[in-house]
Amino acid sequence: MKPLRKSSLLAMTLTALLAGAAHGAERSETSTAGTFVVRYRIALLPSSTGTSTSGSSINEWRQVVGQSCDAGDHCVGFLWQSGKMTDLNTLLSPSFDGTILTANDIDDFGRITGQAIDMASGTSVAFVATPYLIRYP
């Protein structure tokens, strides 16, 4: 059996949470120390563009990536960290000539994968974005 990826587990957990929240469900776990009720705190991620937001992955640093779309179906990939949502297109290297549409996964080193549009060819491309530091004057 193939092990589940962290993003798959997140999607399944969020689906279960939302289904449970709609029905007021709780889950009970029993151990040798007694019975415990598992509850979840839900943090709503604001839409950076105004209409809809979808989280795709979370890492050990509690950074979340996903997609945010406006009413005109214009979508961008985002990074949410420390309570702030940032359009990934504002963090791009000047050498990248494209637009990030969605962010699918983030690892514990902050590397992000997803889908972008290559402006030169107009085609959809996969990307991996690796963070690096720059010095401000």
Description of the molecule:
The chain is mainly beta and 137 residues long. It folds into 2 domains: 1-42, no CATH class; 44-137, Thrombin, subunit H, CATH 2.40.10. It is built from 1 helix and 9 strands, in the order αβββββββββ. The protein has one helix at residues 6-23, and strands at residues 27-31, 34-38, 52-58, 64-69, 75-81, 84-87, 98-106, 112-118, 123-129. A hairpin with a 2-residue loop joins strand 5 (75-81) and strand 6.
Q: Let me know the average pLDDT.
A: 80
What's the count of strands?
Answer: 9
Judging by the overall fold, what is the CATH architecture of the largest domain?
Answer: Beta Barrel
Oligomer: single chain
Low-confidence stretches: 1-25
What is the terminal-to-terminal distance?
52 Å
Overall morphology: globular
Report the sheet with the most strands, covering strand number, pairing sense and barrel closure. Answer: 4 strands, antiparallel
Helix content: 10-25%
Q: How many individual helices?
A: 1
Strand order of the largest sheet: 3-4-5-6
User: Which class do the helix and strand fractions yield?
Assistant: mainly beta
Examine the coordinates and then state which fold CATH places here, giving the name of the CATH topology of the largest domain. Thrombin, subunit H
Query: Beta-strand percentage?
Result: 35-45%
